[in-house]
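#onboarding

Welcome to the new folks! Below is a worked example of what a typical request in this channel looks like: someone posts a single protein sequence, and someone else replies with the predicted structure as tokens. Don't worry about understanding the tokens yet, we'll cover that in week two.

Example request:
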Amino acid sequence: MGPHDVLVLNSNYEPLNVCNLRRAFALLLLGKADVMEERGEPIRTGSGELFAPSVLRMKYMVRRPMPELRLSRHSILARDNYTCQYCGSKKDLTIDHVIPRWVGGPHTWDNLVACCRRCNLAKGDKTPQQAQMKLFRRPKRPHFIPYLALPTYLKAIGRADWQDYLPQFEEFKSSTIVA
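Example response:
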């Protein structure tokens, strides 16, 4: 998430999306959105200076289906704060099935964790108990209805100017990723 990204809210203040500055200016020029927050530093243009938006609110309600929290590699890594759940490393991450698939371990939120390659090789096709490895945190499905994709949400809550517009969930308070 870059410094020029803009949070877009629906007319009811529900987070809709994160877009780039160019798209944000297009929404403003077309009269589709209003500026809720501005960045502190102005942008110089040929006709002068203008303040870039940080948060926009759509003037009309954008209807969309209820978002679904998708199980994906990026969502698992984001949930685990891009940290190996066995050793705490943040490098060379993969996904590990806590209970191996061959033993009947499912491909679910409750059985997948972020894991560095070294720990994944050391654990192999064993359970953590068999490999004498301990998980930092038991994996579980995040308990919230997402407005944004989980990786996007976790990066977005690190932005001070967006925090008033995003729902806060206790399970992610300690794993905030600063953008």
